[in-house]
Design brief:
By secondary structure, this protein is of the alpha/beta class. The protein has one domain: Nucleotidyltransferase, domain 5. Helix content is about 50%, strand content about 15%. It has eight helices and five strands; from the N terminus they run ββααβααβαβααα. It has a five-stranded mixed beta sheet with strand order 3-2-1-4-5. A hairpin with an 8-residue loop joins β1 and β2. It starts with a strand and ends with a helix. The model has no long low-confidence stretch (mean pLDDT about 95). Its EC number is 3.1.26.4. One of its GO terms (cellular component) is ribonuclease H2 complex.
């Protein structure tokens, strides 16, 4: 059994980080057309999300709220955050090997860290979405994150993508319209806005 792990929302200034794991038959996932979630439209991701749930042996995810991201990021430990939460996910989905899209520039170091923490065989890769299970995990993480952001937007209005490069997001942050608990206060974007 092969499992894949990927995340969505590492870089935004608004919203959670979502990390997902998918274990299952790579050929079945490949036939669905899974690939990096960034290369799919929101509608295509939703369709594939349902199909991934249907054909996979195990699917799970963790939502890391902005305050928790801040707790790690303010100390320069964003990779450690992903190590911690990814190790927890690996425990939830049994597999023989886990392929992980590495956030660390040194993929081998990241994979070794996960292997040490979990006692499992982990292979960390850059551009890990070439492994169908990682691509499926990418889709799951992105759909879950997008759905969570939509809940907030229904309550407060459309604040944009949540990324620091999005003018609309920055305008909403400057005006104080994004709920405080949804903001990553340790991000430089926020510091520049409120100097």
């Amino acid at each position: 059994m092969i499992a894949g792990v990927d995340e969505a929302g590492r870089g935004p200034v608004v919203g959670p980080l979502v990390i997902a794991v998918v274990a299952g038959d790579g050929e079945a996932l490949r036939r669905l057309g899974v690939r990096d979630s960034k290369k799919l439209t929101p509608g295509a991701r939703e369709v594939l999300y349902r199909e991934v749930l249907r054909v996979s042996e195990c699917v799970n995810y963790v939502v890391v709220e902005p305050y928790e991201v801040d707790r790690y990021a303010s100390r320069g430990l964003l990779n450690a955050l992903e190590l911690d939460y990814t190790a927890r996910l690996i425990e939830l989905c049994p597999a023989d090997v886990y392929y992980v899209d590495s956030p660390d520039v040194d993929a081998d170091r990241y994979g070794s860290g996960l292997s040490f923490l979990t006692g499992r065989r982990v292979v960390a890769l850059h551009k890990g979405e070439k492994v169908p299970q990682v691509a499926a995990a990418s889709i799951v993480a992105k759909v879950v994150r997008d759905r969570l952001l939509e809940v907030v937007k229904r309550e407060v209005g459309d604040f944009g993508s949540g990324y620091p490069s999005d003018r609309k997001t920055v305008e909403w942050l400057r005006a104080g319209l994004v709920p405080r608990e949804c903001v990553r206060w340790s991000w430089g974007t926020v510091g520049k806005l409120f100097k």
